[in-house]
Write a structure and sequence with these properties.
The chain is mostly helical. It is globular, with a radius of gyration of 20 Å.
């Protein structure tokens, strides 16, 4: 969808960099100048670029052409409602946002800030899901589960789950067969490759590819979708001012505390950590001290 693909494309780029964070950091530590010079030629970036340019970006254009109202969250009703510049910008940003996500997340990684790299990934998915769940007026989920603008304007006259067998959903299911497997395969393989760089005696554990797949989905849905739903509920329940205040408090706890634990447990996975103040230093897990 036009409004969410900006975040989703960024999330793909951040995810490709995050899943290869050990390799990217090792290359940079070995030769910073060479790593910077070759950053756009690494296999991790090339995989991302091929994915977003061959699979992801074309899927967005197809949906925009075939379902212009749904793809714009019921803002446009037909092709005449879409200015050419918007369609062009949409096509471009589906690629450039992925590049930006990779570049910025890699910057955090090479500077030894794994928590910042994790935030780069997670916040993009929170933004993605918040628009789908809440939107700009609290009706995001209604816009998503409406095939066209007419269904959105008459929301409640038909069960929402009818959308699950409608033309948009069936198209998404078909696209998912081609779009999702490369992401999951690349992410789990790159993460497994990175763990091989760590001495076995220092690893908390070495997950299987299936478990890496589950953990990747935890980062997307547990750390992305769940906070978006909570934020929407707070805004609906407490109003704009109260909701934003509650989101600010809970958001700080989530980003500073919970994601700190996620960083140590799912990304670093080491028994000990670098000395305080050193590049890549990570606070020890309280549960192990």
């Amino acid at each position: 969808m036009v409004q969410v693909d900006v975040f989703w494309a960024y999330g793909f780029g951040a995810g490709y960099a995050l899943s290869a964070h050990r390799q990217l950091k090792a290359d940079y530590d070995a030769d910073p100048a060479k790593a910077e010079e070759n950053q756009w030629y690494s296999k991790y970036f090339v995989r991302l670029l091929l994915f977003i340019s061959i699979l992801f970006a074309p899927s967005g254009i197809y949906l925009l052409w075939n379902f212009p109202d749904w793809e714009t969250m019921q803002v446009a009703t037909n092709h005449r409602s879409l200015p050419a510049w918007l369609v062009t910008a949409f096509a471009i940003t589906n690629v450039t946002q992925g590049i930006l996500g990779y570049w910025l997340t890699r910057k955090f990684i090479t500077k030894g800030n794994s928590h910042g790299a994790l935030l780069s990934f997670v916040l993009s998915y929170i933004g993605f899901f918040f628009i789908l769940v809440h939107g700009w007026d609290g009706t995001g989920y209604q816009r998503f589960f409406s095939v066209n603008q007419q269904e959105f304007l008459t929301w409640g006259e038909r069960p929402w789950h009818a959308w699950l067998t409608g033309p948009v959903a069936l198209t998404l299911y078909g696209m998912g067969v081609f779009i999702l497997p490369p992401v999951f395969i690349h992410a789990s393989r790159q993460f497994a490759e990175g763990l091989k760089l760590v001495p076995k005696e220092k690893l908390i554990d070495s997950p299987s590819q299936l478990r890496s797949f589950a953990e990747f989905n935890f980062l997307v849905f547990g750390c992305g979708l769940a906070p978006a739903i909570v934020a929407s509920l707070l805004l609906h329940t407490l109003g704009l001012a109260g909701g934003l205040a509650a989101i600010a408090v809970l958001g700080w706890l989530f980003c500073a505390r919970f994601l700190g634990w996620v960083d140590r447990r799912f990304l670093m996975r080491t028994v000990d950590s670098p000395s305080a103040g050193a590049p890549g230093a990570v606070a020890p897990d309280p549960a192990r001290t």
